[in-house]
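Practice set, problem 2.
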Amino acid sequence: MTSQIPHLDHELVQAAADVARTRCRGDNHTMAAAARARDGRIVTAVNAYHFTGGPCAELVLIGAAAAQGVYELDTVVAVGDRGRGVVPPCGRCRQVLLDYFPALKVIVGGGDRIRTVLITDLLPESYIWADHQLDAE
């Protein structure tokens, strides 16, 4: 189920846009992400592109959050450099975000269609990694 973007999340989009504008340089860093922790703190990160692959901004954000003692994220958004605006998470990021934060809200859309959706809305009928782990005896 989707909802209009709450006022609080405009700050999150702006935080990611500011990082994309000021920290993304060249081809190595082209995306920024921002997330709001459950305690209200905002954590930001940029991707680390490399021709062999590299983590998207959302995945770097998970590590940056943990390094700051943030283990519960409420809402996340990714923004492209050069004014590209909000960019939805790729498939790999959707799966990882779902596995780490099953109640996470994700900001998606563009222009007047920016909205907040649950991560489960982005991956209906998804594989839940934790549901398939053998219980330790």
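Problem 2, part (b): a different protein.
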Amino acid sequence: MNTHSDTQAAGEPVRFDTKIAVLLREDLEPWQRLNVTAFLVSGLGGQVPEVIGEPYEDADGVPYLPMFRQPVLVFQGAKETLTAAHAKALSRALPRAVFTSDLFATGNDRDNRAAVRAVPTAELDLVGLAVYGPRNAVDKVLKGARMHP
């Protein structure tokens, strides 16, 4: 999948054909927003290799881990907005990661996975969703959400 347009003139901003987006429930505390965002994007980085760029290196040759090749856009919305976005992401088969309210009470990966597995899809109490895919498809998933301030 091409991640940006190759027809841009030097100095113009890169316009990506794809989008990485995180949708957070608007009633989260600030620490929860940061924690949920970090967890959600880690899922995309691990399963969608084309989103990861090349490793970094400073002028002294010290290496650093690679990061996403494009920005992560963060949105917020009501609980109903998250539920609708989740259904749209599923119907479009977009790569996605979820974070439910139950995960705030767990303390490890095994318990996190068990907490999600214990709840039917339609009953997940979503507080965060990350999606990746063609820009237009992700925009449709995010309909009704607004950019995080």
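Answer key, part (b): Confidence is low (pLDDT under 50) at residues 1-7. The radius of gyration is 16 Å.
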